[in-house]
Design a protein that fits this description.
single chain, elongated, 35 strands, 10% helix
Amino acid sequence: MRVSVKRRMQMLFAAVFVCAALTPGFRADATEAPPPEEFVITDGVLTGYNGPGGDVTIPESVTAIADSAFAGNTSITNVTVPASVQSIGSSAFSGCTSMTSASIASAGNIGSGAFSGCSSLVSVALPGNLGAIPSQLFNGCSNLVDVAIPSSVSSIGDAAFSGCSSLGGVSIPSSCSSIGASAFNGCASFGSISIPSSVTSMGEGAFADCSGLGSVEFNASISSVPSSAFYGCVSLGSIDLPSGVGSIASNAFGNCASLGSISIPASVSSIDLGAFSGCVGLSSVSIASGSGNYGSSDGCIYDASLSTLIYCPPGKSSITLASSTKTIGAGAFSSNGVIGDLTVPSSVTTIESGAFSGSGISTITIPESVSSIGSQSGWTPDVIYGYTGSQAQLFADENQYIFESIGTAQNPVGPVDPTPGDDDNNPGNEDPGNDNPSGDNSGSNNPGGENPGASNPGGENPTNPSNPNGGNTTTGNGGSSATKSTNSVSTTGSNGRVKDLTPKTGDGIDAKYFLCGGVLLVGVYLVIYKKKIKVK
């Protein structure tokens, strides 16, 4: 009996075990781990997210979102950050390419690049207590069209809105004192922008490549317009810089192709001439009176006394230099390819090196007053007009430019073309092709110094074309006549002197020498002939 009971108990336990083993979800030898939590939160800081994405609302138990907490999550479409969250870390939502909107209730501190690379982001509601727009906050958010900068913001960081090509504009609050480098670089849809007087500093390229930007209300209290500040703003038509600006840096308005005019305050003490590089439409630069460094006349930049021309805008098609101009400075016309004809006023004494380099000036008139002309690389005018013996002629000759004389210089600085027939290397005014010891220039052996080419025994200079012999006559410096026969050929050398190319005929050899030589040859022949006869 005891055995039977014991056996029955064993069978019962075996049956229970089999049933338990066959029951779904039962594990006799292990406990199953709980499912992961959607939000990873440690001491109020959200450090990670394991949820399915879509619309995400941050739990109110969270007080801060850690750096890169949601970075690279492509399933999130919208995010709502409650008032409990006071700070959002750097790159917290960076690369969330499916996110289209974000609403932040009260995070007064947001790290750099928090929403950078969110290429589908369309609208963002920033908190009213935000102290600063950090660097690269919305960098590369190419679809962002709606964002309001709170009035609490004191600064806009580097590249904060860089690449936000769909953003139609923003209102910069009067609380803002600085705009970082490339802050709005590439905001191609900007139509206009107003920079308040509260702004005291602006970084390089702050509004570069805002290709749709047509107008700028510039009230900023900045001390300088930085390099490339408005570079590539091809729709910008004009700009007035505010008083207080002290300098304009290189490429500040570079490649602003539609920029036609710019007004510069008297406070400016330094202008990098590369500031307007590529501004092909710029035709007028105006500088307020009272500047200690610069002045303007006819839309061009001069020094304060208007004595040195510094810059002619590239879009200017004609120019009248100020009557007080004494110097045309280096590079003054180097960016202008439009002006084709230039008349230099008689007040000018110096043309510096490179003044016309790269310019489009093809015809220029240079007065006798110009005493110094520097080298002009990259410039080849069609013709230079000036005075014979002037610096203009010397410059043209040295550079093998065509020179057209408009008169003779009263005070020659170089050799004046002498009267054809004269030769500085012949002190006796002799013709080196003649045996004429008298010093008169004659086309034959004329010991009396007379001019045998005309009925003028006194050797006067017959300047009347009714010369009875028809000979070509020129006037020498000494008053004597140098007459060539009508068969002679003459050409003017590079020094302006007339060179006689008439073939010489051996003038001055007595004919009796030919006769004596002939008789001698005949005598020798006869002697040889007689000897031959005797031998035969």
